[in-house]
């Protein structure tokens, strides 16, 4: 294939990007996005603060803009994200206990119902585990509602949209030997054994020199897939430039292609200048929309 989406489709996979609604009027941006990608994630527009700015008053305008842009062009959408400790609306940030649990479940139900039948996969819960060596859950207001908050969110999402794949999504879960990776693996294994509805695990894959692409990535993806879930690279970006960056991108693609249930790869933005990273050049297109060496390595590896 001559584009990322066409090349990925040769092995039955997708290639996606995150899009910002505010940038869709930039024709360089939207032309690249339309040409190269067939899976779209809203970079911010479907998050809790965007979709429920006041309690029980939902606003889908920006999320719908992304969804309609994608579906009218024949693309699929990953929903991101139903429950997360970050980017909560102000009214939720200081809530605790039963009222927060109920507000979270209502949010999951309402948003998943609004988008019912239109979402390929939802990141139902995002970033619920601690960094470092503890393997513990992250201490958040949602976690303090009870350790079962994650499975409660998954059950609510399944009830609202039975057709959507339901994913757990996190970062620093790429290296198989890290405690956080093991902790998420144990949760997914437990969910599968008890019949909690989970279909996929998302690996954000934000890499930099302090957090390089691990050489055992195929092991991590393969071990999760062996639990009976799909795995997806959901927010890929790699700081750096030139051959080093391109080789790391190639390593990610090769790791995904080596695992039958790795169903697709999404990069977290189009051009370097669109990246959430404050500095650096972590994406596949430069600020002028030109293909970088990393793009060529990815296309060749697909
Ligand atoms: C980031 C967006 O890219 C930024 O625009 C926003 O200011 C903060 O969030 N993990 C996630 C994503 O799951 O939602 C985050 O996106 C990046 C880290």
TrEMBL record:
Enzyme class: hydrolase
Active site: 235
Catalytic activity, reaction form: Endohydrolysis of (1->4)-beta-D-xylosidic linkages in xylans
Record carries keyword Hydrolase: yes
Keyword Ligase set for record: no
Keywords, alphabetical: Carbohydrate metabolism, Glycosidase, Hydrolase, Polysaccharide degradation, Signal, Xylan degradation
EC assignment: 3.2.1.8
GH10 domain mapped to chain residues: 1-301
Recorded superkingdom: Bacteria
Assigned protein family: Belongs to the glycosyl hydrolase 10 (cellulase F) family.
Name this polypeptide is given: Beta-xylanase
Residues of the full protein shown: 42 to 343 of 493
């Amino acid at each position: 294939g001559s584009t990322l989406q066409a090349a990925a489709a040769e092995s039955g996979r997708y290639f996606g990007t995150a899009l910002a609604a505010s940038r869709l009027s930039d024709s360089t941006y939207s032309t690249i996005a339309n040409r190269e990608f067939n899976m779209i994630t809203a970079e911010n527009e479907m998050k809790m603060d965007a979709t429920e700015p006041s309690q029980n008053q939902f606003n889908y305008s920006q999320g719908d803009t992304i969804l309609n842009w994608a579906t009218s062009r024949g693309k699929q959408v990953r929903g991101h994200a139903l429950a997360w400790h970050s980017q909560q609306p102000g009214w939720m940030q200081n809530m605790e206990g039963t009222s927060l649990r109920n507000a979270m479940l209502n949010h999951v139900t309402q948003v998943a119902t609004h988008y019912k039948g239109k979402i390929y996969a939802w990141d139902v819960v995002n970033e619920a585990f601690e960094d470092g060596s503890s393997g513990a859950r992250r201490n958040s207001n949602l976690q303090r509602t009870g350790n079962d908050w994650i499975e409660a969110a998954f059950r609510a999402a399944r009830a609202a949209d039975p057709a959507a794949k339901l994913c757990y999504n996190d970062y620093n879960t790429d290296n198989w030997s890290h405690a956080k990776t093991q902790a998420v693996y144990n949760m997914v294994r437990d969910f599968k054994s008890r019949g909690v509805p989970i279909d996929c695990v998302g690996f954000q894959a934000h890499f930099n020199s302090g957090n390089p692409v691990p050489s055992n990535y195929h092991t991590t993806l393969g071990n999760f897939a062996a639990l009976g879930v799909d795995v997806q690279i959901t927010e890929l970006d790699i700081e750096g430039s030139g051959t080093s960056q391109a080789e790391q991108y190639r390593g990610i693609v090769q790791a995904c292609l080596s695992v039958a249930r790795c169903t697709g790869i999404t990069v977290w933005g189009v051009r370097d200048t669109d990246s959430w990273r404050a500095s650096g050049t972590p994406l596949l297109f430069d600020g002028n929309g030109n293909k970088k060496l990393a793009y060529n390595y990815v296309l060749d590896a697909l």
